[in-house]
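Methods — Computational structure assignment.
A single polypeptide chain was analysed. Its primary sequence is given first, followed by the predicted tertiary structure written as structure tokens.
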Amino acid sequence: MDNISVGGLVGIIALIVFVIFIISTIARALQIVPQAETRVVERLGRYSRTLEAGMHILVPFVDKVRQRVDMREQVVSFPPQSVITSDNLVVEIDTVIYFQVNESKSAVYEIANYIVGMQQLTVTTLRNVIGTMDLEQTLTSRDQINGQLRGVLDEATGKWGIRVNRVELKAIEPPMSVKDSMEKQMRAERDRRATILTAEGIKQSAILTAEGEKQSAILKAEGEAQSRILKAEGEARAILQVFDAIHEGDADSKLLSYQYLQMLPEIAKGTNNQMWFVPTEFTGALKAISAGFGVNEELEPLGRAEGSERRKSRITSALADPRAALEEARRQAEGVSAEADRAGSESGRPFNPDVEKGQ
């Protein structure tokens, strides 16, 4: 009974182990490949086939999955590499590569590690390309460097089943001394441009100011010329009107002499007039007024020679003292005016210059 029980227990255990083995074998034989991924299968150590996305069944203990390959585009960033330019400057360059596996078999069997291979190929190609350029060309020719790197990498990795899509220079770091020199150069260039712009602004401002002053001076000169022309025309018209009025009024010598005598005191007005001259027409005016109103000249009883000498002495004494001459002129003008009033009263009407002028 006990022997039977032990034998049955062993059989049960063996059956359980066999079932587990069968299940595990089936599970290993059944392969489900996700999308954008392939698996390289070897049969008895040799390449058999490449499993695409989907469910696949392998022969147990015969087929073996060698490697899983990601078919999506991958991005690899390499650490900074020291590169020497043609002008013997050491720069640090970071690179980024975008690639995609096209053929899983080549990627597995043609190279042991395609990531390391692309890194080393990038470093050597980059040194060859940068070695033919100076620092300025290196900093300004990124597109050219990217194109050359991509061409070399794509050609070399083609047999690996890899296609290089893009190569980018992430950063180019020159030495600190070169950075300082470049910064000073850029600062000097900015200062030069600012100075040029400032000078251009000052030049334009001076030109516009000069143009404005020129236009202002021209307009001012034209205005002054027009003003003088109009003023001269007005004075000319006034003189013509006065002249015409005098001729139309037919003023006689008595009226003109009287007006002349009235203007003599105006000539002597003012504190700055230390000396003024009495015209020779003064005695002629007095004589004309006296003759017009029938008043004999004070010097008439005397002889002509004696009267002339006395008039000359009076004029000389008047010229020696301007104030005395002014008083003498006023006195004679008042005397003439009084004589004129008296003559007018005798004739029945007072003397009126305006009336006389109208006559």
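Note: The radius of gyration is 65 Å.
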